[in-house]
Amino acid sequence: MHNLNNYLLRKYGKSIKELSETEYGNKLIDYDFQMISWDDVAEDFLKVNNEFNEKFSSADALYILEKEDKVQLFFFEFKNINYSSIEDSQMSKFHLNKCIDKMKFCSNDCEVYEDIKKHAEKLVDIAHVSLRSKPSDSISLFYHVMKNFFKDNYNEKEDLCKEKLFKIEKFFFLVSNTHQQYAPFHKNKSNRYNNIVKPLSFLKRFEPYHYKMVFSVNDNGFHDFFCEWNKI
Fold this sequence. Notes:
Blueprint: H1 2-12, E1 13-15, H2 16-19, E2 34-37, H3 38-48, E3 61-67, E4 70-79, H4 86-89, H5 91-102, H6 113-120, H7 126-154, H8 158-167, E5 169-176, E6 213-217, H9 219-228
Parallel strand pairs: 4-5, 5-6
Antiparallel strand pairs: 1-2, 2-3, 3-4
C-alpha cells in the first residue's frame, strides 16, 4: 500500500487549502498539508477505463495513513455550506420554490401554478443526492484504482485486492460550516453524542459498513481530528 500511496500523492497531491476551496475562491480549511485529490483521480480513471460510463461521485480528498502493519483510509468531502440552513442544504429546491411562489402574482393568473407546485414537491435537491452517493462511490473507486495498480505493477489477483480492502479501516469526513457536529473526538465531550442535523442523518447508515466511523465536522472539528491523529 505504501507504493500506491506514494504514486497517488506524487501524481495527485494537493494541499488541503486547495482541496477545500470553493469555485468562488473561498477556502474552508487553511492547511498546506498534502492529501490526494480524489476528484482528480476519478476524472483520470474514467479517461482510461471504458467499463464505466459516468464519473464516480467521489469525495474531494483521500489520506492514506500507514502505521506499523495497519492501513487506514480517510476520505474528506469539503462543503462551504451550513447544513442547518434550509437555504444552504436544499439550495436548488429552495430557489425553485421561491420562483414558483412568485408565479402566484403573475398578471396572467398563471393556470399552471398549482400543477407546477404539486410536482415541485416531489423533486429532490441535486447537491444532496450527490452528497449521499459520495461515501460509497469513493470506496468503490479506491477498489478499482487499487486493483489496476497492483495488477499492473505486481500482477496481483483481484481477490487479493478485495481481501486487502476489507481489512483496511475506512473513515469518512464531511467538513462543512455547520455548527452542530457528529464527532466523538470533539473537545466538548458533553456534545460527543449529538445527533447529526437532519440533512446529514444519512451518514450514520455507512457506519460500521462501509466505514468504521463517519464524521460531520466544521473547521474546529477538522483541527481536532489532526490533533487526535498526532497531526498527520
